[in-house]
Amino acid sequence: MGNTNHGTKTDPGVAVGYIRVSTDDQALGPEAQRGALERWARAQGVELVAVHADLGVSGGAELDKRPGLLAALGDLAAHNAGVLLVAKRDRLARDVVVAGMVERLVERAGARVVSADGAGNGDGPEAALLRGIIDVFAQYERALIRARTRAALGVKRSRGERTGQVPFGFALAADGSTLVPDPAEQAVIERVRALRAEGLSLREVAARLAAEGAPCRGGRWHLTTVARLVRRVEAAA
After folding, report:
1. SS3 sequence of 123-164
2. pLDDT digit string (tens) for 89-121?
């Protein structure tokens, strides 16, 4: 039996997927998350009707900073889906309050949050307790990452070193602090601008750059990398 949402039955055999990758946590990239969602759906005989993503978005971001999550919540109603599917529960949020808000919105839509890794799934008190523990630990882990980052930046500043990443399209000059344009990366930025002007999606831009052998830090064009670059390009337009 499906849940009900204002008198309309939702179907537990229909799921909407949600993917989130932050700048701090790259352990589970968008492709890996999508694969986990698709494997779970096949194993459970569930139809995965849509997958939405927030790329480069912190786990502590408020809902109005999560267009992908808002789209996923909207699709629950549009498809009468009974499941909001994530690879791991901490993909929802690394903030207890935000995670609770998302869960409440999903429940109001007549659906439930399901983790492809199985952690915290279920309706019993033990499952609810585990979900709470996961949410608290995710928030703690986020705070720990931020504390370590601040400490490392403090050490660099005390040495007079540049802090923060060198933005794509630039390189450090010989003095170790001045930014100078990198011709090869500047050419990639112009290529991205042209591809977006043609109407290509982020996934299509990533595929085109990879096919063309465009230089990429890290050796591979990931969706998160392209998303950050596109935001910079479009903000500067």
Report:
1. CCHHHHHHHHHHHHHHHHHHHHHHHHHHHHHHHHHHCCCCCC
2. 989 988 888 888 898 899 999 999 999 998 878
Q: Which tokens is 190 given?
A: 């112009």
pLDDT in tens, 149-169: 666 666 666 666 666 678 888
Average of per-residue pLDDT across 187-209: 92
